[in-house]
Amino acid sequence: MKKTILALAALALVCCPLLALAQETLSVYNWGDYIEPEVLDLFEEETGIKVIYETFETNEDMYAKIAMGGSSYDVIFPSDYMIERMIQENLLQKINWENIPNIANIDERFLHEDYDPEMAYSVPYTWGTMGILYNTEMVEEAPTSWATLMDDTYYMDMLMLNSPRDTIAIALVMCGHDLNSVDPADLEDAKNLLIEQKPMVLAYVVDEVKDKMIGGEAAVALVWSGDATFCMDENEVLDYVVPQEGSNIFYDSICIPANAKNVSGAEKFIDFLCRADIAAMNYEYVGYAIPNTAAIELLGAEEYNASPVNNPPQEVLDKCEVFKYLGDDTKLYDQIWTEIISEF
Ligand code: N2P
Known about the structure:
Layout: H1 2-22, E1 25-31, H2 37-47, E2 50-56, H3 59-68, E3 75-76, H4 80-88, E4 123-135, E5 158-161, H5 164-174, H6 184-197, E6 201-205, H7 209-214, E7 220-224, H8 225-234, E8 238-241, E9 247-254, H9 263-274, H10 276-286, H11 293-299, H12 301-305, H13 314-317, E10 320-321, H14 330-342
Parallel strand pairs: 1-2, 1-3, 5-6, 5-7, 9-10
Antiparallel strand pairs: 4-7, 4-8, 4-9
Helix pairs in contact: 5-6, 6-14, 10-11
The protein binds pentane-1,5-diamine.
């Protein structure tokens, strides 16, 4: 008997690492703070697939990593203009909709967007606007214009996004130009404005904007709407506005890179994220507006729609524009961003 037990124990010792090696894995690359951690646990429990999870802060960082080709991810979360670029560069693969039945939960109005008109490569995940998050106790009047971000009342009291496309777009709007402009003269204006603003900026941040604004470290910040929702839930003196001059509206989606190793696992994961209960739970943690009608019903449509941040009135949406992929002119953006940042 003792011998048998010992033999079994020895066998287990030898086999365990082998079993671990054989476990199916799924490699996911997402924005920081962009999933409820419990959603990952639940997926692992239900499917037995182990998720290897990494995060990025901007579309450009994510793109650089994928385009270099050294890494392989099974699931990524690009935004509209980046999806357009990655489709053109053959970096994404078509999705087999038969394996994503929960796509039925996604509101029709989010399907067939310009960046993926045939809806072949992307599954809508979240959406939102860019705007100003402000501390009502630190501003005299609620901001209504982007000019607030050039107001020296907020000297060293403002936070900007460390994200080239977003920050340059807002500078273009402040100069009265189109937020997708590739006119070198317009971009020169935007660059000069950001260089002029720079001494007033406390920090260029992405995910850290939340802790800083919740903690009252700055009066105003350029943020994405979902981060505003997150902060406003934590600190009631914070509020959010999409300035009157207009802004960007973005659609973040789920895609499978062309070189993914575990496509069937990726499909299971995407379908899981589209499930009503999972999308609802995810929304409560992440804070970004969701395109999932079934999840919104679960959350209570009335309460969900009551948020002007995640459900902006039509007149605000009418003034918002989606980023387009700008082809080779993207280089102009990279150049001026380097100039702005190196001014420090
Ligand atoms: C989440 C970042 C959201 C991305 N931290 C906005 N497109």
